[in-house]
Each structure stands twice: as C-alpha cells, then as structure tokens.
Amino acid sequence: MSYERTIHRETCRGAVLMKIQDIRHVGLLSPVIATHARFYLEVWGLRSAGEDRHARYLHGALTEHHILSLHQADRCGLHHLAFSVDGRDAVDAAATELERRGITLLAPPDDLDEPGGGYGLRFLDPENRCIELSAGVAEHPNGWSARKVGPRQLCHVGLNTRWFKQTVAFYTEILGFRVSDWIENQMVFLRCDRRHHVIVFNRADYASVNHVAYVMANVDDVMKGVSNLRAQGQEPDWGPGRHGPGNNIFCYYKDPAGYVNEFSSDIEYIEDDATHKPAVWRRVPETSDLWGTAGAPSPDVRQAMAGDPDPGWAVEDINAD
C-alpha cells in the first residue's frame, strides 16, 4: 500500500536545514475569546502569559513562554502552529530553503512582535495552515508551581487533512519530520525529535483542527487533572485510556469553543532515530485504546474532532498579527 511505500529521506536537504527541535505553541481562532480564555485559566490549569489587541497567550508549568494563544475571530480554526529551531541562523537557513522550493513566506525572518519576542518566520503549508519557525523566544525562569496539577507543555496537535499524501510529503521531505507510525492509510504520527509524535495527520474530507494534546507529568497527574475538572463540573468526553501508537495515556475534553483537548502522559520516545521502522497499526478499537477502558469515541466526540472546514490563511478574516 502507498503508506507502506512512503519513503522519508532521513538525510534530506529539508531535514538538514530546518533544524526543527520541538513544537512550541498552537494558535487557535476563537469566536468566544473571553469565555475561552477563562476556561483555560480557571479549569484547564494554564496561566496568563500576556495579551495584545488581537490575542491572549497562556503558558504551562515548564519554561516555554506560551503554549496556547487564542485569537479573536468569527469562527474556529487554526491561526498558526509554531516550532522551535536551533538559533537565528537556522531561521535564516529555513527561509532560504523554503524560497528555493518556491514556498512564499508570509513573514520573512525578523524579530517577532508578540509576547515572548524572539526571531522567526511564517509560511503556509499545502492546505494554507500558517507555520511559524522561531528561535530566541523568552522563557519563564523555572516555570511555575501550580496549586493544582496542570499541563506542563504542548505535546502534539492533531490535524485533519484532505490532501493526506501531499501533506505528509511536505512535512517529511521539506520540513524534515520523521514518520513514527501509521494507522493504515488513515493517520500518520510525525516527530521532530525523539518524542513519538508532535503532529498527527488524519485523512478527512476537509482541513480542520482535530485535537490539541497537553503533556501531564505522569499518569497520576492525568487522573488528578480528571479529578480537578470533575470538581468544575466537567466529565471526560473520551477516556481515560492508553493509545496504541505512541503508547500515551489519554483523556479528552471539549472546550467552550468546541475544540477537543487531551491530557497526555507517558508517551513513547524513539530509542534510535536512525534505525526506527514505523509500524502500521490496524484500524480496530484496540489501536485507539489498548486498555479497553475508554471504549470507542462517541459520535459527539467524533464530530467535534472533525471540526468545521478550515480554509486557513486563504481568507481575510484572520489577523496576521
């Protein structure tokens, strides 16, 4: 099958020049930004990292300046997805490589005008998702100690794609991500370091946000997080359980705007990046939940994960700031 024959060149030019280190933050469009921000501050366990005239920024328990930004809009969708790279030279090299391949930069390398600062660039992927590569962003010294357990950092983002094959090729052959595993020809799990995945692409009828996963310290913190949300009157929409690909523990919730969030812990790390061979998991219930405790996601959760069609930055209702 095509997914088994997909070849990723570990030493491809894109992998060498991009030097992508980790997922940094995700920006989401929000039609209910005040309620949305309040949920993440009072329920989900994040803290404010600042705000400007367009967005609110939130951070977790580790040192990353912010792991989520909420941008005022009339609809839901992805505002941008940010990754860290290895210094200013890596940002400049990425710009040169992207332009060599005919990819137009939305914002060329420059100082970033947002909380946390840094130096970065932005461009569009094949489905008009805005991708940011940045370096030198300010950190929170020693993070912070939450009174209640909360997310530490961003774990991964799940994205639905209409152009599955083309999108996988773009992220692997140009940006240098590596394939960790597949679920048949339906889903692919991509990594940029040893963590099993930082992006998951799911074959769908249109592009949209599938879910956003946040790292919890361990299974105890996942369950304490479940308890904290229960005290706020919110029960899990799916989980707890343990996924097959990535072997991570999960528990899913919907937020006030309808996005699906995941508490995640104990994700697999690839021992030897050079020799790792992606597995092809079957599309069976046991793959989504090895424990069998969560059952299949409900039609309501599946609909939320499908999201609304997202035209990306091809439309004018997204502020570029």
Secondary-structure element pattern, one letter each: HHEHEEEEHEEEEHEEEEHEEEEHH
Q: Judging from the principal axes of the Cα atoms, what is the shape?
A: globular
**Which stretches of 5+ consecutive residues score pLDDT under 50?**
1-14
Tell me the major beta sheet.
Answer: 9 strands, mixed
Number of domains as seen in the coordinates: 2
Strand residue percentage: 25-35%
Terminal Cα span: 42 Å
CATH superfamily of the largest domain: 2,3-Dihydroxybiphenyl 1,2-Dioxygenase, domain 1
Number of strands: 17
What is the subunit organization of this protein?
Answer: single chain
In DSSP terms, counting alpha (H) and pi (I) runs of 4 or more, how many helices? 8
CATH class of the largest domain: Alpha Beta
**Which sequence of strands runs across the widest sheet?**
14-15-16-13-9-12-11-10-17
CATH-scheme architecture of the largest domain: Roll
Radius of gyration: 18 Å
- Range of helix content: 10-25%
CATH fold descriptor of the largest domain: 2,3-Dihydroxybiphenyl 1,2-Dioxygenase, domain 1
Protein structure class:
alpha/beta
Averaged pLDDT: 91
